[in-house]
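Researcher: Here's a chain I'd like modeled. Treat it as a single chain, no partners, no ligands.
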Amino acid sequence: MSATAQEPVPLVGAGRRGIFSWMLFDWAAQPFHTLIITFVFAPYFAGQVAANPVDGQADWAMAATIGGFIIAFLAPVLGALSDATGPRKPWIAGFSVLAIVAVFSLWYVTPDPAPANVALALIAFVIALIGFEFAAIFNNAMMPGLVGREKLGGLSGNAWALGYAGGLICLIAMLALMVADPDSGKTLLGLDPILGLDPSAAEGDRASGPLTAIWFTIFVIPLFLFTPDAARRKDAVNAFAAGLRQLWETIRTLPRQRSLFAFLGASMFYRDALNGLYTFGGIYAVGVLGWTTIQLGVFGILASITGIFGCILGGWLDARIGTRTVVTVAILTLIVASTLVISTTDTSVLFIALEAGSAVPDIMFYVAGALIGAAGGALQAASRPLLVDQVGHPEKMGEAFGLYALSGRATAFLAPAGIWLFTDWFDSQRIGITPILILFVLGLLLLIPVRSRT
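Model: Modeled as a single isolated chain. Structure tokens:
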């Protein structure tokens, strides 16, 4: 695999309907990240399920660490096997079923710190994380066969933007119709929760699980109906063995492929840091700023809106200033946003003390959320085509995105584990979240030798 390998050839018959159906996967899957990982369920777990917010942050980080290890170990192997056998859809289907069942089961996690209840939440989260992550890996591997390289940046950016829009719609629906303020018992629109959801049992927060499952089930269907897939290879048994041998050869020679090796190393850190921001930003706001789910939801709406523009802008800039430049600027912006998050408490901003009751910390956290949404969207949109630049050959895309997942998950334990350990050692959510900043800086430094098509 090298940056000079042949350019992927678009699949015959992909067409606009097939391409749009592929893009709908991001629309279908994004509510898992928006509702479960970031803005609704994770803060609910930390604030109402765990014994206290500090334990909740540590427990959630531990679960994310375990899930990351499992994904890191299996991703490149399964990616190579899918390359060897051909079609990606059977893999997407299998892991989608796993994700749907696990995320739906979060409904049964009540606001109770009993060990069995906490365990149910964490186990379901780990299984759902594995299912959604692997389904995304095989969906990503289909991307280079849909359009030529000159259109990949726009395709990736538009798909991510569509995903952010899907997450935004689900988040607005939850805040407007399901999640109730704990004091008033009313939703953001001042209504009683629909479907008889009981605010005292946090049923609005818990409904994020079934909503995510149903949304994903409905909108992933067009991918299977209309997006063309690679042909099945005839000798599956030998193909499996050949795929594993090729994977080992790729890993063995990877250090000699300087640009690819550097990109995988850089993405290993900056994506881990970004996932850390998404996963623990909401938990931090609940524990440190004392935000309610509705306040956090407004934060999420703002971040999602700026994320949509960031994705589209990142795809547009891909062909104009270069993919690597887009990634670099996005990381620098995220470093600024991370610093703002870490330096903000209910009584200070940028480590400067404020009068009690000041609205400035809340305002600055909203500003940080807007920056995270925009830069995170651009970073995710640009990373997929930048990987394609390092690989090129269409028959290696499953393996490449498997290695991409490995690089993202091989150290995926660093952000949650660092947060887990720092939170535990210092008994402080504020100090606990600082490893994110270090990971962004490491990713930026490792990006220096990476080549880009433009």
